[in-house]
Amino acid sequence: MAQGKLGLNTVCTHTGEVPDEQFQGAISPIYLSSSYAYEGVDVKRYPRYFNTPNQEGLSKKVAALEGCEAGMIFGSGMAAVSTTLMAFLQKGDHVVLQEALYGGTYNLVVEEFEKFGIEYSFTEGLSEAAFEAAVRENTKVVYVETPSNPLMKVTDLAMIGRLAKKHNLVSMIDNTFASPVNQTPKDFGIDIMIHSATKYMGGHSDICAGAVAASQEHIDRIWNLAKNFGGSLSDMTVWLLERSMKTMALRVKQQNANALAMAEWLDSREEVERVYYPGLASHPDHELAKSQMRGFSGMMSFELADGIGAEAFLEALQLIKPSMSLAGVESTMLLPSKTSHFLLGEEERARQGISEQLIRFSVGIEEVEDLQGDIVAALKQTAQVQPVN
After folding, report:
1. Active site residue 44
2. Is position 321 annotated as part of the catalytic site?
3. Whether residue 349 lies in the annotated active site
């Protein structure tokens, strides 16, 4: 059966496996060598060239999951983001970025691009008109993230695909929050898919990695810069990531179901001012999300009502962990204003709607009733208004 015809769980489990030629083991062996022969071989392998057996195999899995010709594995999500952007931008070029982005990407652009002579514009909104208004004669790239971190805004991918084609731009997406389980942007005309593989691909809060999937032509261009930037991933971590990705579809589907249940429950509570989750019919982008996503992700955010101390609430949790990262099998929460979006500054956070009461919730695979019980208990310690049982 052709690889393109395999089902999602089969791709997660088998595509990109490295055959154990010596012992016929059921899983990929680990090749930890940092030095390979250079004479009499088809490929001159070196870890910084992203072509060790384990790197090469896992890249095939990433590509297959995104429906692309080729992929690459990086040392972190930001290594993937920065290398990919810089591979298509040079002095005098301009990039259009959507207004709602991961804080690390925002910082990369505003802190580093000027020194390289690269111009940039953030859109004012996510409409087609907003993106069109930001395009200039020297624009080369359009970069989006959907659903966005942390407010779960949804960008119209088909619109971005059309816009990029119209203006001859390279389109890029941070597909981390959705994962390839829930969203395949290539189906909507997006050129390059980027992931923090630390998140849903890793899924166990013990791996730091990045991933990119695109056409072979685009990957070749990214590789040409990546080999100089040196953001490769150790083969031990590559092997661990492949192991984790075998269960990605199973994990993410359970997280989708748990997140929808938790979003509906939180939305009914008087201690919660607002819930941001595209799976809710009340979300302004719900219909758009339904048209381009197969599931709504395990990520959401919510605002606590006035009078409930957000930091005190997080400290009172016993099961859900206040933690920096996301998408692990365990549920975590954090305050974007204190962590992921702290460097934006108070004024920019307020402009984007990231309040001091906003909590980002990464829903894990625990029993929903246990998560609800933990939240109720924490609210009882911190809420001035008596919670509704």
Report:
1. no
2. no
3. no
Burial of residue 92 (number of CB atoms within 10 Å: 0-12, 13-18, 19+):
exposed
The residue annotated as part of the active site, out of 46, 48, 290, 374, is 48
Q: Is 38 a catalytic residue?
A: no
Tokens standing for residue 159: 């619109």
Q: Count helices and strands (H / E) in the chain.
A: 14, 12
Q: In degrees, to the nearest 5, what angle opens at C-alpha 329 toward C-alphas 328 and 330?
A: 85
Sequential pLDDT tens for the chain (389 residues): 344 589 999 999 999 999 999 999 999 999 999 999 999 999 999 999 999 999 999 999 999 999 999 999 999 999 999 999 999 999 999 999 999 888 889 999 999 999 999 999 999 999 999 999 999 999 999 999 999 989 999 999 999 999 999 999 999 999 999 999 999 999 999 999 999 999 999 999 999 999 999 999 999 999 999 999 999 999 999 999 999 999 999 999 999 999 999 999 999 999 999 999 999 999 999 999 999 999 999 999 999 999 899 999 999 999 999 998 899 999 999 999 876 666 666 777 777 778 889 999 999 999 999 999 999 999 999 965 444 44
**pTM score over 0.85:** yes
